[in-house]
Structure formats: structure tokens, C-alpha cells
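Our consortium's second objective concerns turning raw sequence data into structural hypotheses that experimental partners can test. To show how far this objective has progressed, the report includes one record in full. It was chosen at random from the queue rather than selected for favorable results. The single chain below, 265 residues long, was entered without modification.
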Amino acid sequence: MKYKLAEDVKPQLKLLILATIVSVGLWFLSSWIFPSLNYLVYPLQLFATFVHEGSHVLAAVLTGSAVQSLTVSPDTSGVVWSVPSGWLASLFISSAGYLGTTLFGTALLVWMRYNFSSRKALYFSAGFIGVMTLVFGLLFPIFNIFSLQVGFGSILFTIFSGAVLTAGLFAIAHFAELKWVNFSLAFLAVQCLLNAVFQLANLFIITTSTDGHSDAVNMAQATGIPAILWVFIWIGVSIFMISVGLRLYAASNKAKQHDLPFEDQ
């Protein structure tokens, strides 16, 4: 198969490559050379965690399941306590976290490719984090205070971190120059995709080395299918979604053009 980029994608591709280089560079430097750089990537990790946990919440709401709380911890882990409405709902909710993060990053990628407003995408991202923080991080824990399974400190951190992320995204969308808004959107898209890959890699390690709690363990308990197999399924689906997103990114955005720039050989 011969792969050919559309001409009109090349300027945006440079922006995406730059965002990817910066993202991978920050991750490598903060992990292996300058640990102090973790402070720079920390808000991005929290953003990805909110997207992950928010995907669980959306899956629960869509399946008519009850949500008790959403919390994000200082170590960038998170948890959503919910009561699934049934067996299928449980599967959908457990799968939504990793796949939702991948889907969110892919959606941002396609949004940017088709020249929709980058400011609107950042406003939407800010609104998403804000709603998850206010409704499921604050109000729902209050409503379910007598059955809460999380600590008060976790709730406070969720509210604080969610408020800071919401304000930061809103400020960039509203006040930054367009070139920085575009870069920020590309950066968030890459961060979501990379974070989804890293999270799945960590899940693979956790699943093969411990018997700890995880979404894959939940799936194994609900279906009888080994947790490690669910990890491979999620990795495969994530790779498929990313590949589809990249194909859409490379295609021409002219509405009347039906032939995509991919030629079989």
C-alpha cells in the first residue's frame, strides 16, 4: 500500500510533529534526566486522568448506571465509583477509560485537521473538565456522602486540580494568540494519545506482575476472560482508532473530493 499525504495537510503536519517532539522530549527528560521537569508535564497528566475518569462517567450515564463520585489523586491516578445497571453496562464502563482517552485525542486531531475552531475545542475541553469537577467531583459526593468510599482529601484535590485545569484551558482559549491556541490543541491531542499508550503499557505491566485492582481485573471478573487478554484487546482497539484518526488527518478536507490520498499497490 502506497501512502501519500494530501498537500493541504502538510502545514498542520508540521505543527503536529512539533507537538509530538515536545511531548516525547518532555516525557523522556522528566523520566530519565531532569526529574524536576515533572512539574511541567504534571498538569498534562492530570488532564489525561480527568479525560480517562470522565469517560467512565459518560459510559455510566449512557447506560443508566448510578455514579457516586469521581476523584483524581495527586499521583495522577483516579477512580470513579458507580453502580452498573447490568452486566453489559459494567463492561462498557470498565472499557471506557482507556478507549475514551484515545478517542478524545483522536477527535481533537480530526477537529484540528478539518480547520474547525481551535478556540472552541479548548473551550469544550475546559467545559468538560469543569462539568466533571463540579457535578461528579463535588455535587455527587455531597449527595452520596453517607456511602462515599473515598477520602475527603481526594475530593478536595479533585476540586482544586479540576478548577485549575478548567481555568487554564479557558484562559489559553480566550487570551492566547491563535498560533499558541493551535499549538495547545495539537499538544493536548498528542498528550491524550501518548498518555493512553503509556497507560495501557503500565496496565500490561501491572496485570502481569500483580493481582491489584484495575479496569482489566474488573473485566476479567465480569466475563471470566483473563485480564491480560482485555489489555491486548484495548491496545488493539486503541491502535485502530489512532490509525483511523491519522488516515482522516492525512485525507483532503475538500467536501467534493471522494478519492482519498491512499493508493493500493
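The partners drew two points from this record. The CA atoms of residues 106 and 245 lie 5 Å apart. Residues 178-209 form the longest helix (32 residues). Both points have been shared with the crystallography group to help prioritize constructs.
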